[in-house]
Amino acid sequence: MSARISTTSTTRSAISTTTTRRRRISRGLTAATLATGVLLPVAAAAPATAAAPQVTCSSNKAGLAKKMTADLTAALRGRPGTVALAVHERSTNTYCSLRSWDAYDSASIVKVTVMGALLYDSQKRKRALSTRERDLVTAMITKSDNNATSTLWKQLGTGKINTFLKAAGATRTKPGANGYWGLTQVNASEQSKILDLFTQTNAVLTAASRAYGLDRMARVVPAQRWGTPAGAPGRAKVHVKNGWLPRAAKGWRVHSLGVFTGQGHDYTITVLTHGNKTMQQGVDTIQSVSRAVHRDLNPASKARTFQAPAIVPPAAPHEVIPPVPEAPAH
Question: Which of 15, 74, 124, 193 is deepest in the core (most CB within 10 A)?
């Protein structure tokens, strides 16, 4: 009997010891898990992955927001690079956006801001633009002349440009330092706001200034009318300004601003891209987006077909460029 009791006691002691060890191990692993954030395989769960930015649309017109969300998403599917966009149509209060607050190097789309700042400053001083200024604006907008831009940028200074940006509600836009206007930091949302200043009554630009600005953008030379005009309705009045800039980091920046008036409504399209391997990739992405917008906002209109010209970057710099051994902005 004593032997049996002794054996049973020994067995119970072993079991107790094993159980205690297991509890200690369990507590130790739990403590380690809490300390390191590493989950055991048994309790492991797939880590949460941040969702990629999605196109979002809103509209007072029934069904339009849903359709535009789907169509813009499809237009961007499989496209290279990173895209930001802002679309605004006033009559139905339709707005679409994607990465609309992300910052991009402006390249030459900042020239619309320069024109707006010049017009705003002349209004405040109660004077008309001089013949020289009109010539510079025409060259800057219609041909994207860089020397004309540099002249006006220097004349205004970043102080007057920032004054205009503040009046426009575009305070996240940061003018490029040291005269490098092509490196101005812009975002799609605020570029859309600036375009709106040219299409509706506001306290920043007078009717005369708005008409003049739109007229310059309507006269852009054919070789630079690619981008947002692609797929525009045949009866729409097209106003455009594009920009492109290759750099080692994030590849080609290719942007397009478009204002479309007539047919009983007006709307703006802003598309910014970077991370393109070639300029043509950026152009193709912008035009894919633009065709979807024009089609959805003008379902009964016949589309105009815009063929992007063959794009050949200039062989030599012809503007103030960033202090890096790369090709210039345009």
Answer: 193
